[in-house]
Amino acid sequence: MKKTQNQKAWFMVLPVLLLVAFSAIIPLMTVVNYSVQDTFGNNEFFWVGLEWFEEILHSERMHDALRRQIIFTLIIMTIEIPLGIFVALNMPKKSGLWTSLCLVLVALPLLIPWNVVGTIWQIFGRVDIGLLGYTLDYIGINYNYTQDATAAWFTIIIMDVWHWTSLVVLLSYAGLKSIPDDYYQAAKIDQASRWNVFRYIELPKMKGVLLIAILLRFMDSFMIYTEPFVVTGGGPGNATTLLSIDLVKMAIGQFDLGPAAAFSLIYFLVILLISWVFYTVMINSDKGNG
Amino acid sequence: MKINTSALVMILYILFLMLPIYWLINMSLKTNQEILNTFSLWPNELTFDNYIVIFTDPSWYGGYLNSITYVVMNTVISLSVALPAAYAFSRYRFMGDKHLFFWLLTNRMAPPAVFALPFFQLYSSVGLFDTHIAVALAHTLFNVPLAVWILEGFMRSVPKEIDETAYIDGYGFFTFFRKIFMPLIASGIGVAAFFCFMFSWVELLLSRTLTSVDAKSIAATMTRTVSASGLDWGVLAAAGVLTIVPGALVIYFVRNHIAKGFALGRV
Amino acid sequence: MAKITLSNLAHSYTKNPKSQSDYALKTLNHVWDDGAAYALLGPSGCGKTTLLNIISGLLTPSSGQVLFDDKDVTNKGTTERNIAQIFQFPVVYDTMTVRDNLAFPLKNRELTTDYIDQRVSDVARMIEIEDILDKKAMNLTADIKQKISLGRGLVREDVNAVLFDEPLTVIDPHMKWKLRTQLKSLHRQLGHTMIYVTHDQTEALTFADKVVVMSEGEVVQIGTPTELFEKPAHTFVGYFIGSPGMNILPASVQGDRANINGHDVKLNTEYAKIDGKIELGIRPEFISLSSDPTNLPIKINRVEDVGHHKIIRASHQDHDINIISSEDTEISANMRYVAFDKTRLNIYADDWLVEQ
Q1: Which of residues 173-202 of A touch C (CB under 8 A)?
Q2: Are B30 and B70 members of one domain?
Q3: Identity of the residue in C83, C109, C138 whose CB atom sits nearest the CB atom of A290
């Protein structure tokens, strides 16, 4: 659409600007402020420059948390994206009771408060009172997510898959629904195999929404806090201490404001950077195809 | 044959989604005694005591009221500032518009954990700590960018000629916006409201950090409730079940728009 | 290539159709001759797309049979019928090149690479898209995309019939004309049986050897363009075809005279006694203005000059009468009557043509 040049449009954006300035810029300034100062209490601060940043960038703790975070994000994305597409392909398309039921039930986990998601899996996985834990224990698998790191990882991953695959399903489904019937009929006439229908019709049409799905899943999984915090509290040991959990521990638990602030800024920048890379790569591949 | 395998896949997936929820419901209808001592797939001694506790104890049901209050406030604030901004982005070119739009979106990428502490200090210093409006404002951090982005997508698909025709017909901007434009993007507003509701309702970290007593959210109530005799599993489960209800209701009402809604108007 | 026979065919989208009105397609018997070009013409919702989808095998009819060369294919799928279909919205595989698009149906049938290359270049030459063979299909214009989807149909040599479902709907007007002409010459060149669904009479009349006119799920006439013009079998064909359509006036008929509101009109032949609702139909082309008071009195409401002829909008009492007269006809104030060319008059009883 051709847009008109109009500087007065700034006035329409002004409320958003003020609001976001209040809820993003001011807090961010605080963070920056802390990140370059140190204190011995009594509200006395002194300038330390980039010391905190250097410390955080070289700290084992940050490296470990980042590594865990990347592994976590990679695992859940490799499961959720293909699984989401696969389920979306099997979603009923004609409107009717069954379709409505599928949609409502599939969307349900997305609307459950994150701490409740944590609670649900905390209970579900317990060996004494949870169906999953009890069953695994019953068939002889040693499963105790509060003590065993592998079990803890298994729990938070299956929890995330449970919680977020539906987002990929619904986005892909929206993409699939926009394909006119003619395409399927033409493919039938061309004797295209099921795989070719997927490869040449469905996947290209889903590309736009899949891009959104991948971006959202990346960002949200990278920021995940509540669910693993409720289930494992970051443990056993630090086995499931992802970036956000570590940050909150540092800032609110230990009140190490300086390092926590530096940590925050680095964290934010990493997300921005990776999102930006994702975004550009995909936009470019789009152009390359055209 | 094909229909059958599809249905099978859907049934398996839904089963996977529903089992943990069923387990929560199952537990909420048991006594603590039964939860801890016998393992059963359904309640042997059906009891509603856990729910009665929640509905009679103000610290429990107050949590729900507080949550609903700030969620609604957040949705109203987010939409009312996002609407004009999205209109400006979809219709006009102005200095720095692209940078501004991108910068807005980056706020969606900000980890709440980064903001938890600064928010606490900011709202304490202006005397808004432990109020509904503090949580509502804090949640605008990620809901406003999202609302602007969704609404911009829907508005872009409304041809500009409609605006021009309305002005020629003598409508002022505000009448036009209210009477003609808003109904045209009604589904977009609905979708944006849905997402604002959703993200504000499910968030815990900020709402817990910014409240203590008066505006304490249900999520915070749940994570802080540890009774003297250890965890009260039955009540916890019942509280969890009750937090699922509003979400389920919202989904039920928008079920026919879910497909289009999740595409955010961009398919 | 094949002759297609429809025998006692009917279709309803409801499970247990009770009355005739439940049928999207009413009982139909017809033979589509091998190698002929047909058009299925009718307004939206008349059942033409339903009929097309039954022929292509995308839809199984509620009753009756579809035969390809006397072989029953009623329950066979699209693939086994070996037909090609071009849809309203151009279907191309966006991520493939044009070449791969054309080769796709052949590759799926696992033919040899040499043969595929040969066919693709033949077809590309035929539909004149050789220069863009290596471009991605995504960003091409609608008319090129439509050509590609046509090409995907033609690339298979053994195709039994080529079906078109309103293929020019989304094409720019100036390209429509060009594509239509190309289609016609392709038909002459290849001799496939072609069935072309449209609601546009110009498309139908220029493309087809025979036009099948449908209305409300029923085939009302099958004929050459000339037949449809001169002897519409049904009043619907009369006013659907032609611009403006045929004038229909209520009348009574006795022997070789018709009576319109007390005014006598001479007919070409003697009619036997006819029952039902009697109407007289005459095309605007065969009416002339006159000042002779023995003719039918009219009132002229408006004259439209459309360039190569004039359309005179007139009325006789409450009935509209349209007249087409040549550009140089002078219209004077005393021309308050119309004369009919009696050889072109048709008489209808309950909407159907009464044979002379």
Answers
A1: 180, 182-183, 185-186, 188-193, 196, 200-201
A2: no
A3: C138
Q: Please name which of B202, B219, B198 lies closest in space to residue B66, comparing C-alpha atoms.
A: B219
Put simply, the answer to whether B259 touches A6 (Cβ < 8 Å) is: no
In a domain, B267, yes or no: no
Which residue from B minimizes the CA distance to A131? B23
Q: What is the model's pLDDT at position A70?
A: 92
pLDDT in tens, C292-324: 888 888 888 888 888 888 899 988 888 889 999
Fold of A59-289: MetI-like fold (1.10.3720)
Q: Are residues B116 and B243 in the same domain?
A: yes
Domain of residue B4 covers: 1-47
DSSP for B9-69? HHHHHHHHHHHHHHHHHHHHTS-HHHHHH---SS-SS---HHHHHHHH-HHHHHHHHHHHH
| Residue predicted with more confidence, B109 or C195 | C195
Asked if B120 and B199 sit in the same domain, the reply is yes
B35/B89 same-domain check: no
Residue B89 sits at the chain A interface (C-beta within 8 Å): yes
Instruction: Kindly list the domain boundaries of chain A, sorted by start residue.
Output: 59-289
| Yes or no, beta carbons of B10 and A120 under 8 Å apart | no
What are chain B's partners, defined as 3 or more CB pairs within 8 angstroms?
Answer: A
Q: Does B111 contact A104 at a Cβ distance shorter than 8 Å? A: no
Of C56, C78, C136, the CB nearest to A289: C136
Partners of chain C (3+ Cβ pairs below 8 A)? A
| Nearest C-alpha neighbor of A93 from the set C54, C15, B6, B253 | B6
Going by their DSSP bridges, the two strands C352-353 and C83-86 should be labelled as: unpaired
Domains contained in chain B, number: 2
Q: Indicate whether B81 and B24 sit together in one domain.
A: no
- How far out from the chain centre does Cα C64 lie? 23
Domain with residue B156: its CATH number is: 1.10.3720.10
Residues whose CB falls within 8 Å of the CB of residue C348, separated by 6 or more in sequence, listed in order:
C234, C235, C238, C248, C278, C279, C280, C281, C354
pTM for the structure as a whole: 0.82
Q: Nearest CB to B6: which of A9, A90, A107?
A: A90
C-alpha distances out from residue B173 to B97, B163, B165, B178, C197, Å: 21, 9, 12, 9, 47
The answer to whether B247 contacts A108, with C-beta atoms less than 8 Å apart, is: yes
Q: What is the pLDDT of residue B267?
A: 42
Q: Please indicate, yes or no, whether residues B80 and B125 belong to a single structural domain of this protein.
A: yes
| Residue A274 reports pLDDT greater than 60 | yes
- Within this chain, do residues B60 and B182 fall inside the same structural domain, yes or no? yes
Does chain C reach chain B with at least 3 CB pairs under 8 Å? Answer: no
ipTM field: 0.86
Smallest Cβ distance to C87: which of A182, A196, A201?
A: A182
Closest-CA distance, A71 to chain B, in angstroms, reads: 18
Q: Are B82 and B212 part of one and the same domain?
A: yes
Q: Which fold has domain C4-240?
A: Rossmann fold (3.40.50)
